[in-house]
Design goal:
The protein is an alpha/beta fold. It has helices spanning about 20-30, 40-55, 70-80, 105-135, 155-175, 195-205, 210-220, 230-240; strands at about 10-15, 35-40, 55-60, 85-90, 135-140, 180-190, 255. It has two domains: about 10-190 and about 230-255, NAD(P)-binding Rossmann-like Domain (Rossmann fold); about 195-230, no CATH class. It contains eight helices and seven strands; from the N terminus they run E-H-E-H-E-H-E-H-E-H-E-H-H-H-E.
Length: about 260
């Protein structure tokens, strides 16, 4: 399927590992010029080299998007090479695990808000004017299904508190900018087969094999699909939301979780 985005410039935060890396490959294969923005230079270089080896166009930018300066510097580099990014994928990570009773340092909550929500504010402020001028734009946030329904088996009181604020921000911005041809959506992965998820299940549930993980997904997590999702299944959803064909989808919270969340709406 031709997504209709050939030659569009992409700002892809966290595009060197996991889901983000696969999104980078997919958008490059669609003919996009992909700006891979991350913190670790070695991972950036490896991603750019892999895309180039497949005939794609990519530029690596080392930056911290949780700061306004980091966003502006990354955008300046990308604009100089590829032009204004009209496709922006935002994601960031902050992980201080624990139940509410375990965490007394309020700064952890502030750091989490800065990472999850303020980073997206910085990005939106920086890229929306060009999208508005062009009459076209795609902003996709890769979040987490726990923003809607915190999981008791995952002890992340801080993330469960601050992730929903990002969803509220993006829904509000989606409503305000839809008339300019700009879409803003959140993709919410459930249990996905990544190294981080494998490590969590090993450390917290003693699971080390695919069969053990699948049984746990059925019997403990209660996932109707009876398995973990593949990173490609998230990345393909993100890529579609970046497309010209997805222009009537905006302000949405899209769960890709094997049916884990049971509500109808």
């Amino acid at each position: 399927m031709d997504l209709g985005i050939r030659d569009k410039t992409v700002f892809l935060a966290g595009g060197t590992k996991g889901i983000g890396r696969i999104v980078a490959d997919m958008l490059a294969a669609e003919g996009c010029k992909v700006g891979v923005v991350a913190r670790t230079q070695g991972d950036i270089d490896a991603t750019v080299a892999a895309i180039a080896a497949q005939g794609g166009q990519a530029l690596g930018v080392r930056a911290d998007i949780t700061t306004r300066d980091g966003v502006e510097e990354a955008l300046a580099t990308l604009r100089a090479a590829f032009g204004e990014p009209l496709i922006v994928i935002g994601q960031s990570k902050h992980n201080v695990p624990g139940d509410f009773a375990d965490i007394d340092d309020i700064q952890h909550y502030l750091d989490s808000f800065n990472t999850y929500t303020l980073s997206q504010i910085h990005l939106l402020k920086a890229v929306l004017p060009a999208m508005q001028a062009a009459g076209w734009g795609r902003f996709v946030h890769i979040g987490s299904a726990t923003a809607k329904e915190p999981q008791g088996t995952i002890h992340h009181a801080i993330a469960n508190t601050t992730r929903p604020s990002t969803v509220g921000l993006l829904k509000t911005v989606a409503d305000e900018y839809a008339r300019f041809g700009i879409t803003v959506n959140t993709v919410a992965p459930g249990w996905i087969a990544t190294e981080n998820a494998f490590a969590y299940l090993k450390n917290n549930a003693g699971l080390t094999t695919e069969a053990e993980r699948a049984e746990w997904m059925r019997k403990v997590a209660g996932i109707p699909a009876g398995r973990m999702g593949l990173p490609e299944e998230i990345a393909s959803t993100v890529a579609y939301l970046c497309s010209d064909l997805a222009g009537f989808i905006t302000g949405k919270w899209i769960e890709v979780d094997g049916g884990h969340h049971r509500s109808m709406f």
